[in-house]
Each structure stands twice: as C-alpha cells, then as structure tokens.
C-alpha cells in the first residue's frame, strides 16, 4: 500500500534540535513519556518535510533526519519585526500589562483578517515591538525519535481532525486538539505555529 495516497494516523516520540553552522545540536523540545505527537497526514498539521519522512516509516522504525530552513520555517525576515502603537493593546482605557510583556506570544490579525502569532520583543513609550517570525525561522532542524503508530486514519479520526482545524483559536481546551498531544509540538502543535 502506498502510504502517501491515504490519510495516515501517525504517532511519534521525538526530540527536536536546532543545528548551528558547526554542526552543534541544541535541544529545543521533546515529547513527554506517554504523550507522543499524534497527527493525521495530509492536513498540514505538521511540517511537510517532517510528514514526508515519517509517513514512509513503519511502527518501531527509528528516525534521525535534518530539515533545512527553506523546508522548515523559512529564513528570518527583518520585515517581520513591527512596532505597533500602544493603543492597540488597551483594555478599558489601560495598557494590557498582564498579557503584553517581553516574551509573550500573542495573536494578531492582518488586513485580510487572518490570525497569526507574534512574540513581544519590547514594550516602550512609543509602542510595542513584535516579531512575527516563527521562533525557529532561519534554523536548521534535526528530528530524532521513533514511530509508534502508522496506519490508515479512520473516518471518525478524520472528522475530529477537520473539526479541530475549523476552530477559531489555539486554545487546546476549546479545540480539543487531540491530534497534537498538547499545544507545544514544534513540528505541528500550536507552538509550531501551524494551528493558528
């Protein structure tokens, strides 16, 4: 059977590393014991390059592969950094200090009303500096791990996936995102920027 032609239910345990110019690896994230990354192929839940590697493997197969920035989260773009007016972040006449602070990841909307995630870099008197680049933009990624499950997805699983993808936000409790095993998956969870 050609696994590429059907929606596959995939479950993997993995470690994600960034790789610098000298080949040194730095651990970025990993799945927790008993909480693998679960997804269905063909829905854009994970990086295409990640999915292509995993879908060809069988349960029990170990993997260790590298993805260049162009096939991951792209190059870092200076134009992704914006200074926005403080007025955009006012709640009942007060600046929203509770949610807008350096390091916070916030949801913004562009002119076409598409939602995207951005990281607050700085809050100053003039406004709020945000970076819309993915946190792993410009990084070479290395995934190591093992495939736990690879089978045809059931109709019910596909329907749940479609329902979760139609959610308006990245709130896992609201979306019931059972396909990610959590909200932190860099290759496809909310932390990976694919959900929003």
Description:
The structure is a single chain. This protein is mostly beta strands. The protein folds into two domains: 3-73 and 137-192, Chitinase A, domain 3 (Roll), CATH 3.10.50; 80-131, Beta Barrel (Thrombin, subunit H). It is built from three helices and eleven strands; from the N terminus they run βββαββββββββαα. The strands form three sheets. Strands 1, 2, 3, 4 and 11 form a five-stranded antiparallel beta sheet that branches.
Biggest sheet, open or closed, and with what strands and sense? Answer: 5 strands, antiparallel
Q: Runs with pLDDT <50, length 5+?
A: 168-196
Give the proportion of residues in helices: 10-25%
What CATH calls the topology of the largest domain is Chitinase A, domain 3
Under the CATH scheme, the architecture of the largest domain is Roll
**Approximately how much beta-strand content do the residues carry?**
35-45%
């Amino acid at each position: 059977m050609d696994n590429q032609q059907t929606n596959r239910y995939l479950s993997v345990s993995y470690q994600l590393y960034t790789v610098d110019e000298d080949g040194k690896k730095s651990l970025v994230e990993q799945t927790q014991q008993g909480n693998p990354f679960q997804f269905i192929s063909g829905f854009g839940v994970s990086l295409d390059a990640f999915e292509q590697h995993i879908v060809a493997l069988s349960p029990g197969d170990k993997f260790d592969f590298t993805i260049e920035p162009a096939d991951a989260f792209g190059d870092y773009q200076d134009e992704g950094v914006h200074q926005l007016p403080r007025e955009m972040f006012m709640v009942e006449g007060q600046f929203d200090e509770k949610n807008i602070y350096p390091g916070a990841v916030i949801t913004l909307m562009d002119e076409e009303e598409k939602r995207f995630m951005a990281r607050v870099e700085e809050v100053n008197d003039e406004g709020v500096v945000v970076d819309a680049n993915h946190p792993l933009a410009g990084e070479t990624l290395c995934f190591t791990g093992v495939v736990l499950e690879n089978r045809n997805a059931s109709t019910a699983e596909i329907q749940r996936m479609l329902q979760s993808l139609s959610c308006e936000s990245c709130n896992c409790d609201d979306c019931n995102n059972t396909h990610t095993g959590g909200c932190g998956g860099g290759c496809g969870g909310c932390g990976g920027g694919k959900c929003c």
